[in-house]
Input
Amino acid sequence: MTMSGGEKAGTQNTNTGRTATATTANNSAKSANNVVEIDLVALFYRFLEKTHWIVLTALIGAAIAFAIVNYLITPIYQATAKIYIVGSDTTISLTDL
Output
């Protein structure tokens, strides 16, 4: 952990919640043990708080994609199908197809 010129030794670092010390021994020990802990429960609740923004963003993206596909892109291929029904008393040849 390095300290900038504006930080004082022993002050609380708001990004990590740890206290910064000015001694080089503590700094070298901290850099050797660079461990970051992630609280998954707190992360889950943070995402749960922002669920409305996640859903809103997904709906807006789906609406934009729908509009682009239906109104801006012209279809390239078109397919048609025909069914030829033959009665049991008639004969069919290849020329009829």
About this structure: The longest helix spans residues 51-72.
